[in-house]
Amino acid sequence: MEVEKPECLTGEHLLYLDRLRESGVTNMFGAVPYILLEFSDLSEQQAKQVLIYWMRTFSDRHPR
């Protein structure tokens, strides 16, 4: 199933979320506040879209 990429999404967002996950600082379901702190140009809705895209495409980008 193809996931629609948000217009606001950049590779930097995906890399940030990968690193946040690896850090173990937060459960990724609670990552929106971290995204907003790191990327102040995003709205809360855009941060949610970025996170949803990251979650839905994680296994495609990180095959085992």
Descriptive terms for the model:
mainly alpha; 64 residues
Question: What topology emerges from the helices and strands here?
Answer:
Layout (H helix, E strand, L loop, with lengths): L10 H13 L8 H7 L5 H18 L3
Helix pairs in contact: 2-3
Provide a descriptive summary of the structure in words.
By secondary structure, the chain is mainly alpha-helical. The chain has one domain. It has three helices and no strands. Helix 2 crosses helix 3. The radius of gyration is 11 Å and the shape is globular. The relative contact order is 0.20.
Count the DSSP helices. Answer: 3
> What structural class do helix, strand and pairing data support?
mainly alpha
Provide the gyration radius in Å: 11 Å
Distance between the termini: 19 Å
Which range best describes the helical content: under 10%, 10-25%, 25-40%, 40-55%, 55-70% or over 70%? 55-70%
Number of domains: 1
How many strands, what sense, and barrel or not for the largest sheet? Answer: none
How many β-strand runs?
Answer: 0
What are the segments in which pLDDT stays under 50 over at least 5 consecutive residues?
A: none
Average pLDDT, all residues: 95
Approximate strand percentage: under 5%
Which H/E pattern describes the elements? HHH
- Give the oligomeric state of the chains in this entry, treating copies of one chain as homo and distinct chains as hetero: single chain
What is the 3D form?
globular
